[in-house]
Sequence to fold (256 residues):
Amino acid sequence: MADSRSFLDFDGQWIVLTGASSGLGRAVAVELARYGARLVLVGRDEGRLVETGARLGQAEHRVLALDLTRHDAITPEISQLRQEIGPIYGMCHAAGVVATRPLHATSVEVVQAQLDVNLLAGLELARAVCRRDVMTPEGGSLLFFSSVYGHVGMPGQIGYSATKGAVAAAVRAMAIELARRRIRVNCISPGLVFTEMTEQALGQLSAEHVEKIKAAHPLGSGQPEDVARAAVFLLAPGTRWITGADLSVDGGYTAQ
Fold:
């Protein structure tokens, strides 16, 4: 008899998911739970993580309140987690911060705050999850969130673009390095998706500028679930021959 399961099934594999308290991270959590993943929900606000957990139906999950700017706390937390739940299959780094600033206001401190979360926290998480005594022995899957602004220019997003471009570059290097262990590494570059973070960033722009950004997406602006479904695809054990990819989920924005 043929196996009737979807190639997207996770069969109870554990995924560590950052940014799970809202926005894209919360949407990814809901979609992963639908396909049988067990989830470690990571974020600073424990109450909001509990709210995300309540949306996962019967899916097994853990809540891990963690400030990702405390890079030295990440590996100990993941090691303790491994002792409690067993081997970890994958990680999705959906957490991110953005600061809309023109060049004259793009100080080292402004860029560093974005770099700490958007890039460095993700790299430290990958380092912790990929330890041989942590990850499932048959390999696993890592997913990072870049952005269309890692590919195209946008006024006011110099620091953010720099960090997201670095994410995409790091993903390619990790994909090659970790392939021998059957660990896949990919990223998604979303376009305009309305989340709390996006609303805050757009609030720094004029109404005319916002409308121009919306109009630049041939299929219109996206919803969190549009990105979440792509995340499930790239993380799933069944997509085992995809690594080093940077998938634009942007309604056609970067096709122009």
The longest strand covers residues 183-190. The chain has a mean pLDDT of 94. The first helix runs from residue 23 to 34.
